[in-house]
Amino acid sequence: MTTFEKNKNILEENGVQVHQDRKGGEVELECYTPAGEDMIFTLDELTAECLCDYIESFDINENVLMWWQNGGSGVPFSNIKEHYEDYEKWLDGLMHIADEMD
Prior knowledge:
The protein contains 4 helices and 3 strands. It has 102 residues and is of the alpha+beta class. The chain has one domain (3-100). A hairpin with a 5-residue loop joins strand 2 (27-32) and strand 3. The mean pLDDT is 92.
């Protein structure tokens, strides 16, 4: 089994959908936060290092403010703190998945 296949299996076992036209290169991942927000993002390669880089560069403040600047329309939270905590839990879960990957 290749590293790509192993990492793809780990992600899929953890509820992350992996979309790619061909093996190698850029890959799109889709998953949900604990509260159910659909998160779609792209990695240059399907590696733990690329996933960790994404996690470390994810700006929770920017993403939360993007939703709440429009009055919180469509947000399943009663306040910004809950939304922030949802992203923290989601990123923590992704980090645990990255720990299993090569």
